[in-house]
Every structure is written in C-alpha cells, then in structure tokens.
Amino acid sequence: MNLQEISDRFEIQDAVHQLVRGFDRRDWHTVEHLLADTVVSDYTAMLGGEARSRTAEEQTRHYQEQLDPLDATMHAATTLLVDLDGDRATASVNILTWLRREAAHDGPLWSNGAAGEIELVRTDGRWRIARITVRPAWAEGNRGVLDPAH
C-alpha cells in the first residue's frame, strides 16, 4: 500500500464518520458537503419504499426532515473497511443507531444495527458520498419514533 492509498483510506473513513456525526449534531452543512452532486440512498430493506436519487441538497433536506423532529439520535459507524478502485471506493461499515422521540406512542426509542455499503467518488480532490445502501441486521423498540404523527 502506498502513501496515496493510505491517505485515501483515512479520508474515506473520515467522510463516513463525519456523516454520522453530522446527523447527530444536526450539522446539515457538513452533511451536504460530504455528498456527491447526485446521491442514491437505498434504505428499502430497513424502511421500505424505493431507492431514491437526489441532489446533495435534496438528500440533506430529507435527512433533516427525518431527524430534526427527534429529541436525540446516536449513530455509530464501526468495523469500517475500504475498497479502493482509482477515484471510486466502497466503504463497508456496520452502523448502530438509536433514535429517541419522547412523544412517540408505543415507546420513545428505536434502535437498530445494519450493514452499510457507502460508495464514494473522488471529485475535485476530495471524497464524496455517491450512494448509501443500508441492510438491517436487527431492530428493537418502536419504529414509530420516525413518524411525527405517531
């Protein structure tokens, strides 16, 4: 492994960790800055629906609309492995999530563990997230915390 590959791996790991920290700190500027101009998000195995392609601004707004109503969130990205392929990369990561909304019927907490595949592209000298795919390993608690009407 050469110095560029080592540097790339650290930058990719930082991007993944900054993303989940951005969620929890509600740092939407950082989240948007980490995303490619077009990003595909695929949470279908966890939340249903369909994979969506959005601009970085639209995807950030989507995250904000889902997470801002919550009282607290905690995301942890662990066991991160990076596959490099020139200016493209895939980060395989385990993601642990705790979402809390005190006013939710049927309990205030939903937690889950998932396997994530995060595809990145090097654009203008920096790594940006182009696709996020999340597949659940387990979940417990009240998924209704994500529904403000619940």
Helix and strand layout, with pairings?
Blueprint: H1 3-25, H2 28-34, E1 35-42, H3 44-47, E2 52-55, H4 56-67, E3 72-85, E4 88-100, E5 109-123, E6 126-141
Parallel strand pairs: 1-6
Antiparallel strand pairs: 1-2, 3-4, 4-5, 5-6
Helix pairs in contact: 1-2, 2-4
Pfam family, one: SnoaL_4
Organism: Streptomyces pseudovenezuelae
Domain SnoaL-like: 4-132
Largest sheet: 6 strands, mixed
Kindly name the structural category.
alpha+beta
Indicate the overall shape: globular
**Nearest-integer average pLDDT:** 96
Fold and architecture overview:
The protein is α+β, with helices and mostly antiparallel strands and 150 residues long. The protein contains 4 helices and 6 strands. The chain has helices at residues 3-25, 28-34, 44-47, 56-67, and strands at residues 35-42, 52-55, 72-85, 88-100, 109-123, 126-141. Strand 5 (109-123) and strand 6 (126-141) form a beta hairpin. The chain is globular, with a radius of gyration of 16 Å. The protein starts with a helix and ends in a 9-residue tail after the last strand. The mean pLDDT is 96. This is SnoaL-like domain-containing protein.
